[in-house]
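Q: What structure does this chain adopt?
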Amino acid sequence: MTDLLSLAIMATLILYAVAMGIGALRLFHGPSAQDRVLAMDFIYVVGMLAMLVLAIRYESEMYFEGAMLMVLFGFVGSVALAKFLLRGEVV
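A:
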């Protein structure tokens, strides 16, 4: 791995951490429940992107599988929360 790629990966991970921090602020201080659900979606998408960057960094396929599971569970959680906000019940 070249020095430029290592620097770019480190900068990307730092910026993703900043983005997740901003999303966490919205998650805890959102004015409405819809804003909080959207912030949760944002956080898991950025987390998935960070896992993909780590997969490139460590050259491991396991991170790709973890990112796929993260997106799957995040999607199911988002659908369940959206259904709860619309109807008041999940099932």
